[in-house]
Amino acid sequence: MTFHQTKLANGLVVIAELNPAVHSVALGFFVRTGSRDETAAVSGVSHFLEHMVFKGSEKYSTGDVNRIFDEVGAINNAATGEEGTLFYCAVLPEYLPQVFELFANILRPALRQEDFGMEKKVILEEIGMYDDQPSFTAYENLMQTHFAGHPLGQSVLGSKESITALSCDQMRAYHRDRYLAGNFTLAIAGNSAWSQIVSLAEQHCGHWPSGTCGRATHEAKPSGGLKVITRPKSQQEHIMQMTPAPSAQNHLRFAAEILSVIVGDHSGSRLFWELVDPGLAEAADLDFSEYDGSGSYLTYLSCEPEAVSENLARIQAIYADVNLHGIRDEELDQAKNKVASRVVLRSERPMGRLSSLGGNWVYRQEYRSVDDDLTTLRGITSRDVRELLDAYPLGATTTVAVGPLESLS
Amino acid sequence: MPEQIIHTHELPNGLTVVIEPMSDVQSAAFCFLIPGGSAFDPASHGGTAAVLTDWIIRGAGDLDSRDLSNALDNLGVQRNESTGLNHLAFTAATLGANVPAALSLYADIIRRPQLPDEEFEGAIAGIEQSLRAIEDEPQRKLMIELRRRCYDAPWGLPTEGTLEEIARITANSVRAHYDRCLRPNGAILGIAGRVEIPEMLDLIGDKFGDWAMKPDSSMVTGPRGERIGHINHDSTQTHIGIGYDAIEYAHPDYYKAWAAVGVLSGGMSARLFTEVRERRGLCYSVNASLNSLKHEGRVLCYAGTTVERAQETLDVTLRELQRLGDGIESHELERCKARAKSSLIMQQESTPSRATSIARDWHFLKRVQTLDDIRRDIDELTVAGVLDYVHQHPARDFTVLTIGPNALKVP
After folding, report:
1. Does residue B213 belong to any structural domain of this protein?
2. CA distances from A61 to A37, A65, B20, B368, B409 (A)
3. Are B310 and B317 in contact (CB under 8 A)?
4. A24 is in which domain, residue-wise?
5. Most buried residue, A7, A305, A375, B271, by most Cβ within 10 Å?
6. C-beta atoms surrounding A246 within 10 Å
7. Domain range spanning residue B295?
8. Are B74 and A333 in contact (CB < 8 Å)?
């Protein structure tokens, strides 16, 4: 595998990890804009705009966009989060020029009023769909409560009210201000040639307006809280808890990643053996998420409502033990073996490499090969985990519950 | 495309091994299908096979539950156990070099499970929790209940049973299911990735060669549920499920049926997405797929929409399904072909998907299609051929199930 990078005159960064041994190539336009960059008046616009990009440009109609992606057999999609919007696809190498031109073109979308009105209905349906998934409701409310007063607390989907009130002109202004060349990272992984990539980028993105966008990245200092959303007819209670963890720029993030595997992986972890294996809970996981300037540990528990108090006490006891005594060497070795295998398996597909390639650049302007990741992983010690726990202990700063319970003690 | 080597070997006891070595990867994966799935659950004891699937990994050979889990984790095994209608399915992926050791552990899991009393309650409770969680997710609940109305029992029954049935299951009834159903004859082991064929065959002969055959298991049959139905739920959306007759994977016309569904739902330019979502904005999620048992198949569709637009969504969706017989444009078929060929090539980058594909092919076809075979079948599809299939198997006599605040009028 070889790594290449360049920056166009307008500020667009292009990076590629090329591998002639694979059959496909994955392409991702990473835009550094998400719900944390929105004002309250346009809540949900980043995600809505992501949909509108696929509605076409002056050159391509909605029908053209859908047709061309299907004609070349592309696997394509897009995703919007708190801090980024990603447009991606995987294709056979011979089709890269065609999908590149299409993606680059529709990233300057027409934003037609008629399409805007139609897609608004789809976004409102999407909000309705997630409303019928209790774990999503819990997550949405947890983020808003935990990061209250900090930009990370702003909803990705927006609300029924904010989406209904949003105008096409507001979206046009948001696109004009945020989709600047310097706010993009173009990442390519898989079977392709660097000279072709550079010439495609210059030809199709070289005229994009230059400029970058600032973002306040001060670390969130959550004051915590409790929110209970009662749904009397539900069977299970869904609990989510959040507490601060290292940011995307903090060297402790590697230790946080491995700690979440040891304590809260979906199998073989401390939470698994204490709660899931004996059948006390349907799910009990710990995840680590890194953001620009902030980070979080997320605990998820799904169980019968009567079992919630005891299960939460069990989780707190595990966290207290880990905070006090750290982790055992054999737990660390086992987690390293698990993660190393995941890294290698994921890296065998260009689509699997794309998110790590783009993510490392967007957050840290660095390239990390699979070998770099494996070397770092092997080097983590229980002392690193101790340093992490001293700075960012496990806990439950904020709690949200969705289910039959009316209150949580 | 590099030439594919697919090696098939049947042990005297009826266990079939299918191996596809892949040279450009470090990993390897296997998919082990063992007879004894939920179709063989005893009468009124739905969920028996599902409990066994959970319980069987809680200790095997000399290792207790925790030691076994640790051993698999230390080999970097990413694993999944699931209950199918015909089989219990065990899939595992790790570095190719670790596959022999992983396979040896699975020989213990499958042939020498401890099935200890003290782990039984945990296995049962896990299934109960999972059944309760489904009640809170109307979309998942809908598709499970739609199957019950699309296929006769046992094929349409939920693999995890019901809460009432789970309450009847005892440790001994699950052990009896293991003794009665799990066997080498009819078992399929698909392996794909960085492995050596002779080394694999020696190991498998050593670990499974003396596994004794068993007679066929019986199953309890029964009728399917009502064709039209509604389940009340105070959900935000109305969730709509539709089913109609199609054909099975082994049918000579299978790829025609696949293309017909592809024209409806094969990509962003397909008809359901275009008519229901893009032109009318009725849904975020609308799709159709071909679902195959060994002896029959159905098209299953889903659409989720807000209550006030649910009737229109149902009407538009049904009209699109029926309209397929009026004609298909050649460019619609060409796009299906392009998508299929691209996904076939990309499969070669994933050892878990190849292991699963070759095991599934053997189950349905008693042979494995190479990617070239499939590509040839896809290339040979014509609009006239696909339309002919649609006319022989028209979208009609719909099974329709809805979940939401109000029932809909089904034409």
Report:
1. no
2. 29, 6, 43, 42, 35
3. no
4. 2-205
5. B271
6. 23
7. 228-404
8. yes
Q: Identify the domain boundary among A155, A170, A205.
A: A205
Residues A279, B24: C-beta atoms closer than 8 Å: no
Whether residues A191 and A251 share a domain: the answer is no
Give which of B72, B73, B274 to mutate to test A binding, by max A Cβ within 10 Å. Answer: B73
Q: How many residues does chain B have?
A: 411
Nearest to A88 by CA among A54, A37, A134: A54
Question: What ipTM was predicted for this assembly?
Answer: 0.93
Which chain A residues contact residue B334 at CB under 8 A?
71
CA A153, A154, A156, A162 dihedral sign is positive
Number of domains in chain B: 2
Task: Give me B50's structure tokens.
Answer: 């599902």
Which residues in chain A touch residue B74, judged by CB atoms under 8 angstroms apart?
333-334, 337
Domain CATH code at residue B87? 3.30.830.10
The Cα–Cα gap between A404 and A141 comes to 16
- The angle formed by the CA atoms of residues A297, A300 and A301, to the nearest 5 degrees, is 145
Which residues on chain B are in Cβ contact (under 8 Å) with A303?
129
Among candidates A23, A66, A67 on the partner chain, residue whose Cβ is nearest the Cβ of B349: A23
For B126-160, b/e burial (b = at least 16 CB within 10 A) is bbbbbbbbbebbbbebbbbbbbbbbbebbbbbbbb
What does the pLDDT profile of chain A (409 residues) look like in tens digits? 899 999 999 999 999 999 998 999 999 999 999 999 999 999 999 999 999 999 999 999 999 999 999 999 999 999 999 999 999 999 999 999 999 999 999 999 999 999 999 999 999 999 999 999 999 999 999 999 999 999 999 999 999 999 999 999 999 999 999 999 999 999 999 999 999 999 999 999 999 999 999 898 999 999 999 999 999 999 999 999 999 999 999 999 999 999 999 999 999 999 999 999 999 999 999 999 999 999 999 999 999 999 999 999 999 999 999 999 999 999 999 999 999 999 999 999 999 999 999 999 999 999 999 999 999 999 999 999 999 999 999 999 999 999 999 999 7
Strand extents, DSSP E, B225-274: 228-232, 237-246
Domain with A91 in it: what CATH number?
Answer: 3.30.830.10
Residue A193 shares a structural domain with residue A279: no
Regarding whether A74 and A159 lie in a shared domain, the answer is: yes
Q: Residues A62, A64, A65, A69: is their CA dihedral positive or negative?
A: positive
Reading the block at residue A44, the tokens are 């949900």
Pick left, alpha or beta for residue B20 (phi over 0 → left; psi -120 to 50 → alpha; otherwise beta): beta
